[in-house]
Amino acid sequence: MFGAKLYSATLTVNGVFSAVPVGAWISFWTPYNPGVGTVNAAGTVAAPAAVAPGAVSVAAKKSGRLGAIVAGKVTQAGQGRGGATVTIRGGAKPSALKKLGSVKVKANGAYSFKAKRGTFFKVTAVATSASAPPLCSALAAALPYPCVNPTTDGFVVQSKTVKKK
Asked: Measuring CA to CA, how many Å separate 65 from each of 62, 105, 109, 116?
């Protein structure tokens, strides 16, 4: 008996889908019975992925003679997004900002950075794709199969330039 055995597959698709502002991509996966080559319908699972835009806020408050506390929040679909990395740039002029450092965002999306000097600041937040267990809870009633490996998409977002107050 001859049969093809697929052990692993990777699919890359470019230029086919348009941007989705907010939504969920739900894939359904059905395995084959090993050695038999028939579908194992009872093993079918659903794997959802949330798609939502990211945002970052920033404010700078004077601290000491020259320094500032640069703080804000990283959000995705309006909810705090923990685990992101925020890179802080600062300088005396908005046109000459240099990297001052970076911080990890707390679980609630908040971040804070103490800059030794600077008048103007701008931040960039980078959030990688992450596990999103609440997605399975929210979709459980609507899915015909068990929910596995829920994720949320990653994003890179930049703030406007702000002046310390």
From this structure: 8, 26, 29, 9
